[in-house]
Design brief:
150 residues, alpha+beta, Nuclear Transport Factor 2, Chain: A, 7-stranded mixed β-sheet, 7 strands, globular, disordered N terminus
Length: 150
């Protein structure tokens, strides 16, 4: 047990050091991809999502179930769905070396699904891998959060 705690603490302490050592252009490139990926989801751009999502994507939804690429893209591009613009809070962009990185944030996702309004507060973490000159999402984890009190 103590070994597990020590490993967790060491990893937690090393993460900021990795981010601090990353070149600014590496952080900027990762941020630009994360921004484009988020925009493609809200715009329901199936072609962009197909390019931006790895064929072997692991997607963990807010209920904890595991799905793949087709389920993820279908979930964002339903013909009866429409999404409101989002504001990302507590965003983290973290390069994990030259070939990997992550983006995480909290947001309220709202819009209409099958004509009915919805609103859900989530935290997501997207892990990206480099494939040649471009990035692809390879792992996405969504956690549902308690609704904000208004």
């Amino acid at each position: 047990m103590r070994g597990t705690i020590a490993v967790a603490l060491a990893f937690g302490m090393a993460t900021p050091a990795i981010a601090a050592e990353a070149p600014a252009d590496q952080v900027a490139g990762l941020r630009a991809f994360a921004d484009a990926f988020d925009a493609a989801q809200i715009a329901q751009d199936r072609a962009a999502l197909d390019r931006m999502v790895a064929d072997d994507l692991v997607f963990i939804d807010g209920s904890g179930k595991r799905y793949g690429k087709a389920f993820f893209i279908d979930g964002w591009t339903g013909p009866d769905d429409d999404y409101d613009p989002v504001t990302l809070r507590d965003r983290v962009i973290l390069p994990l070396g030259k070939g990997a990185g992550l983006a995480s944030a909290e947001t309220v996702l709202s819009g209409r699904s099958a004509g009915k309004p919805f609103r859900v507060r989530i935290r997501f973490t997207d892990i990206f891998r480099r494939h040649g000159d471009s990035w692809q999402a390879t792992y996405i984890h969504v956690t549902r959060m308690a609704a904000e009190s208004e």
